[in-house]
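Technical annex, item 7. During the second reporting period the consortium partners agreed on a shared format for inverse folding records so that results from different sites could be compared directly. Each record opens with the tokenized structure and is followed by the designed sequence. A conforming record, contributed by the partner at site C, is shown below for reference.
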């Protein structure tokens, strides 16, 4: 072997040795990095479970933390994607070999307890309102006018009142259950006569809670598990000393096993908290004097919002102790003296509608509740009888129109659709991708389907 060949062989041998040493160190780094990654994965899953349980215990906890855990940095935050669902994110980051590494785990946490009774609306900002489908409803019978509406699984529950009850042709029915699977061919499943008439409705999967216009049973509970054969299982008279026709239901809301029932201005308190955990044995557990009618009720966390005709159109009530509700703040809508009429919420934004005046729609932030912060106002030129908020959209029902607003920026709402009604709007509901409207008319149902 020549000297040149010997030198070349030594060089090749050296390269092989160096390559093997590099592979060894690379393998060692891979093992170390894999171990760190696995440690971060385990820690992240444990934290995800811990914070998930914390949200289950107190859904309205604001979790936003960054913690140094030796080699790792843990960052935790939540994002509201709906009124009853949050996305929980747990991120672990670390540096290895002069590079930052990140591992993020996510989980959706749903507030099932409060979601009960909220319906099954699936509308959002994704739908187009360029040319929606519009379908008319069923004939409710002579003299009947729809007063409120609720829906679940494309079954519509429509309440009514008769404007000419003494007429021999009057239809005494005031609760109509309608199969709306085919919007152009509705099927009346059943109808019942609950008494003098109905003004409000709240719904869960098996029960309809009905606000009656009688002083003998302001709350009625119907078993609707069989839509073809609903039956009234409870007639509940609000306790108290009254003898006129003012203590009648004007609004109703279901929340955590309780019915919150509002009445017209009455000889007794106007807000009544009724335990319906045993549906056929309702029991009043709390009450509150509003000194005015309660036109609409909405519950959020342990607070109750009341829309009223008082100078302060919106009252915020703490119901953490249901036996002792207390006023914690209120909101006086600037500009005019309209009555608080309707309420709805999209995450941390509350929408208040009132009767016709300078401005009828008020958008408020709930970020610092119980403090209410006014974000913006809109003049619609008509009384707002009902509202329905979904992520980034607001549906507005007035005496004469149905409107859709883009609410991506709550400070600058944009109208994206408007439809003139043939009768006064009285209620909005939503199931799946369908909007259902109740109208003060004998043909008191309108179905609107976006594209």
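Designed sequence (site C submission):
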């Amino acid at each position: 072997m020549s000297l040149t060949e010997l030198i070349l062989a030594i060089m090749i041998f050296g390269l092989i040795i160096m390559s093997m040493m590099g592979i060894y160190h690379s393998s060692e780094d891979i093992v170390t990095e894999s171990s760190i990654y696995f440690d971060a994965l385990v820690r992240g899953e444990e934290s995800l479970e811990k914070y998930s349980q914390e949200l289950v215990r107190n859904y309205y906890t604001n979790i936003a933390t960054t913690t140094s855990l030796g080699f790792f940095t843990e960052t935790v935050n939540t994002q509201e994607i709906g009124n009853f669902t949050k996305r929980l994110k747990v991120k672990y980051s670390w540096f290895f070999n002069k590079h930052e590494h990140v591992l993020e785990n996510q989980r959706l946490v749903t507030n099932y307890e409060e979601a009960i009774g909220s319906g099954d609306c699936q509308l959002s900002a994704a739908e187009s309102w360029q040319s929606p489908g519009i379908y008319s409803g069923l004939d409710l019978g002579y003299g009947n006018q729809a007063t409120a509406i609720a829906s679940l699984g494309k079954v519509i529950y429509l309440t009514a009142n008769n404007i000419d009850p003494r007429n021999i042709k009057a239809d005494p029915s005031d609760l109509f259950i309608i199969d709306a699977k085919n919007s152009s061919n509705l099927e009346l499943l059943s109808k019942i006569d609950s008494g003098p008439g109905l003004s409000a409705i709240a719904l869960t999967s098996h029960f309809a809670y009905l606000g009656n216009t009688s002083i003998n049973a302001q709350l009625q509970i119907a078993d609707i598990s069989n839509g073809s054969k609903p039956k009234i299982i409870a007639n509940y008279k609000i306790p108290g000393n009254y003898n006129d026709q003012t203590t009648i239901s004007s609004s109703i809301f279901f929340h955590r096993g309780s019915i919150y029932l509002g009445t017209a201005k009455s000889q007794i308190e106007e807000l009544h908290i009724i335990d319906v955990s045993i549906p056929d044995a309702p029991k009043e557990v709390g009450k509150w004097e509003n000194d005015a009618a309660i036109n609409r009720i909405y519950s959020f966390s342990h607070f109750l919002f009341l829309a009223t005709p008082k100078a302060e159109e919106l009252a915020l009530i703490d119901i953490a102790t249901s036996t002792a509700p207390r006023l914690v703040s209120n909101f006086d809508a600037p500009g005019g003296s309209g009555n608080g009429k309707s309420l709805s919420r999209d995450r941390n934004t509350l929408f208040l509608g009132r009767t016709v005046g300078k401005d009828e729609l008020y958008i408020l932030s709930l970020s610092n509740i119980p403090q209410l912060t006014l974000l913006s106002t809109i003049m619609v030129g008509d009384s707002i009888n009902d509202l329905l908020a979904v992520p980034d959209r607001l549906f507005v029902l007035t005496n004469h129109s149905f409107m859709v607003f883009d609410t991506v920026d709550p400070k600058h709402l944009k109208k994206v659709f408007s439809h003139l009604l043939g009768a006064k709007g009285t209620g909005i509901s939503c199931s799946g991708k369908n909007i259902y409207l109740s109208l003060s008319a004998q043909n008191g149902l309108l179905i609107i389907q976006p594209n």
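The radius of gyration is 29 Å. The first helix runs from residue 3 to 57. All partners now use this format for quarterly exchanges.
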